[in-house]
Structures are given as structure tokens and as C-alpha cells.
């Protein structure tokens, strides 16, 4: 009888534990793209999480032809850096260093991320496009 009660007690406890243990979440975990990771590592501090930039220091990355327009100009900004440039009628004085230490794919990834984030809807940049601009540098 004691063995049967112990067995029933174990069944009861395991049943209660099974009911109180939450099942693993079936929701998909958002994964970051390589471009987003590069943005967070190299760009976020100056251009902010929402791409707004910092007035008079670092230009915004949203709602600007510098981002959504000519890819070659944008690639050159990453390869060569930029300082004291008038962008959309505002002058930004903080020096952006060259990021030519990034490889062609990394530059393509981060620029593609920027061109498709913060409300931007511009086509991707490819590693071949970056390579072409880098060779002409």
C-alpha cells in the first residue's frame, strides 16, 4: 500500500510540475543582419539608433539623398570619410573617419542596412559595387 501511495504521489507531483512548467516559446527570435551588427558597432554612436544623427555634428541617415541617392557617393563616404560637408542644407562638423578597413562585403552590408532602414527604401549595395569604387580610389 505504501509503495502504491508513493507511486501515486510521484505521478501527482510530476503532473503538477508538467502543468506549471512553461513550454518553450514558439515565437521567432528576431535575428540581426550582418549590416545591422556592423551599424551598431561602427555607426550607431554618431548616427544614433534611429538614424537621426546629431544636429551640427553628425548628419542624419534618414530622409536624405546622401543615403538613398547615388551609391558611389555613399560608398566613397565610407571608404574616405567626410568632414565639414553641407548635407540637405545643414553643415556637419564632426569628422567621420574612413572605414576602408572594412571589406567590400561588410561595406555593402552596412550600406544596404542603412539604405533600407530608418524609413529609407533604396536598393541594396553589392560587394562588387564597393570593389569597383575602391579600385578607383
From TrEMBL:
<keyword id="KW-0479">Metal-binding</keyword>
<dbReference type="InterPro" id="IPR009056">
    <property type="entry name" value="Cyt_c-like_dom"/>
</dbReference>
<dbReference type="InterPro" id="IPR051459">
    <property type="entry name" value="Cytochrome_c-type_DH"/>
</dbReference>
<keyword id="KW-0408">Iron</keyword>
<dbReference type="Pfam" id="PF00034">
    <property type="entry name" value="Cytochrom_C"/>
</dbReference>
<protein>
    <submittedName>
        <fullName>Cytochrome c</fullName>
    </submittedName>
</protein>
<dbReference type="GO" id="GO:0020037">
    <property type="term" value="F:heme binding"/>
</dbReference>
<keyword id="KW-0732">Signal</keyword>
<dbReference type="InterPro" id="IPR036909">
    <property type="entry name" value="Cyt_c-like_dom_sf"/>
</dbReference>
<feature type="signal peptide">
    <location>
        <begin position="1"/>
        <end position="18"/>
    </location>
</feature>
<feature type="domain" description="Cytochrome c">
    <location>
        <begin position="30"/>
        <end position="118"/>
    </location>
</feature>
<dbReference type="GO" id="GO:0009055">
    <property type="term" value="F:electron transfer activity"/>
</dbReference>
<keyword id="KW-0349">Heme</keyword>
<dbReference type="GO" id="GO:0046872">
    <property type="term" value="F:metal ion binding"/>
</dbReference>
Amino acid at each position: 500500500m505504501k509503495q502504491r501511495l508513493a507511486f501515486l504521489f510521484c505521478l501527482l507531483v510530476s503532473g503538477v510540475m508538467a502543468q506549471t512548467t512553461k513550454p518553450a516559446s514558439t515565437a521567432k527570435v528576431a535575428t540581426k543582419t550582418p549590416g545591422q551588427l556592423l551599424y551598431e558597432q561602427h555607426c550607431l554612436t554618431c548616427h544614433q539608433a534611429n538614424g537621426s544623427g546629431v544636429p551640427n555634428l553628425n548628419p542624419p541617415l534618414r530622409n536624405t539623398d546622401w543615403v538613398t541617392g547615388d551609391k558611389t557617393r555613399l560608398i566613397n563616404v565610407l571608404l574616405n570619410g567626410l568632414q565639414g560637408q553641407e548635407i540637405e542644407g545643414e553643415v556637419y562638423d564632426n569628422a567621420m573617419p574612413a572605414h576602408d578597413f572594412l571589406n567590400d562585403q561588410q561595406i555593402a552590408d552596412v550600406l544596404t542596412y542603412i539604405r533600407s532602414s530608418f524609413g529609407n527604401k533604396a536598393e541594396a549595395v553589392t560587394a562588387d559595387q564597393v570593389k569597383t569604387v575602391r579600385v578607383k580610389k
